[in-house]
Write a structure and sequence with these properties.
One of its GO terms (biological process) is polysaccharide biosynthetic process. The chain has about 375 residues and is an alpha/beta fold. Bound molecules: pyridoxal-5'-phosphate.
């Protein structure tokens, strides 16, 4: 699904030099590399504060702790996402409220958000799934009408831009009150291990978050708030510093691969290609915008509409073509998150998507030959 080795070859010297230096100086935790990475990411994202932490799941949890959410508060999020999003809500004894998504973008449905709001609702967690932002303009409107926090799960869309109706743009993860991302190796900006970060433009919240990640300490051995231990280590920061200047190029390579896939699949009758939400500045070519980075293709996910998704997955496995099913079970049907408040009729789209989606290899090193082999295999299978 990903080719991390190929990407490494191009930045190997830089990474090895930094790692050598870290070992020489032994500044393994919170060393200069972490601080430099933080500043560089703040600049890249055009956000006031980046708070590095240990992984994307922690980033979400720490964001919720920093906002002071309390047990019993309801948090609305998407039924169709990785479990980490809902897990942290439950861990903090907040009440997850799962809602359906849109069939075209796979992102949280804003009408469903409105319908789920109660007097206990305190926050919305949009997930920018597969590399494309949720409908943030409307989510911000809902949040301001109902006085809710917006916590962006940006684990899959780092570097993506979101365009507002007035033409202004913001980077994914910097639009709501707080954003959380992951540097898991296979994400668009991946470390050589675990890593994560929280973003915010709010000075007070940033101060709180910096304490929460560090045992609630603002002054050594004075614990003012309940915190956690969640750190990005210097070696991961060094890897991320080497990759960050290439992130836009990496994302362009993903878009290019998506365009090549689309070219083949757009006319295939049993397949629906991923839809990129259009805005006025989009310049689409084969369904992919090449001008505004509105989709950074963490995953390239097709919908197989003739009921043969599982058979296709089996066929690809036999030919050793990597593929993924993100996600096979709606969160509202997972044992850990079942709740009598949920009604199957409220999740028509997620219930359909879990049967139709399949993700094909997507990374920065895909060759034309690989894409041709993959697409030919899929088309031949579906047409037979
Ligand atoms: C990867 C991911 C996370 C969690 O990130 P980790 O760094 O693995 O903890 C959270 N949400 C989504 C949508 C993800 O894809």
């Amino acid at each position: 699904m990903v080719d991390l080795k190929g990407q490494y070859a191009s930045i190997k010297d830089q990474i090895q030099n930094s790692l050598d230096e870290i070992m020489e100086t032994s500044a393994f935790i919170n060393g200069p590399e972490v601080q430099k990475f933080q500043k560089e990411l703040e600049e890249y994202l055009d956000v006031k504060h980046v708070i590095p932490c240990a992984n994307g799941t922690d980033a979400l949890q720490i964001a919720m702790m920093g906002l002071g959410l309390q047990p019993g508060d309801e948090v609305i999020t998407a039924d169709f996402t990785f479990a980490a999003t809902v897990e942290v809500i439950a861990v903090l004894q907040l009440t997850p409220v799962l809602v359906d998504v849109y069939p075209n973008t796979f992102n949280i449905n804003t009408d469903a958000i409105r319908n789920a709001i109660t007097p206990k609702t305190k926050a919305i967690v949009p997930v920018h799934l597969f590399g494309q932002c949720a409908n943030m303009e409307e989510i911000l409107e809902i949040a301001s009408e109902h006085n809710l926090y917006v916590i962006e799960d940006n684990a899959q869309a780092i570097g993506a831009n979101y365009s507002f109706k007035n033409g202004s743009k913001k980077k994914a993860g910097t639009i709501g009150h707080v954003g959380a991302t992951s540097f898991f190796p296979s994400k668009n900006l991946g470390a050589f291990g675990d890593g994560g970060a929280i973003f915010t433009n709010d000075d007070d919240l940033a101060h709180t978050l910096r304490g929460v990640v560090n045992h609630g300490m603002y002054e050594r051995y004075y614990h003012d708030v309940v915190g956690v231990n969640s750190r990005l280590d210097s070696m991961q920061a060094a890897v991320l510093r080497a990759k960050l200047p290439n992130l836009n190029t990496y994302n362009k390579a993903r878009q290019e691969a998506a365009r090549k896939y689309n070219k083949v699949f757009q006319d295939c009758k049993h397949v629906e290609i991923p839809q990129v939400e259009t805005n006025q500045s989009c310049n689409k070519d084969l369904g992919i915008c090449s001008t505004c980075d509105c989709h950074v293709f963490h995953q390239y996910s097709l919908k197989i509409t003739n009921g043969k998704r599982d058979a296709l997955a089996k066929h690809l496995a036999e030919l050793q073509i990597p593929h993924g099913i993100y996600y096979p079970i709606p969160l509202h049907n997972q044992k850990a998150y079942k709740d009598s408040r949920y009604n199957e009729a409220d999740f028509p789209v997620t219930n359909e998507l879990v049967k139709e989606v399949i993700s094909l290899p997507m990374h920065t090193e895909l060759t034309n030959d690989q894409i041709e082999f993959i697409t030919t295999t899929v088309i031949d299978f579906l047409n037979n």
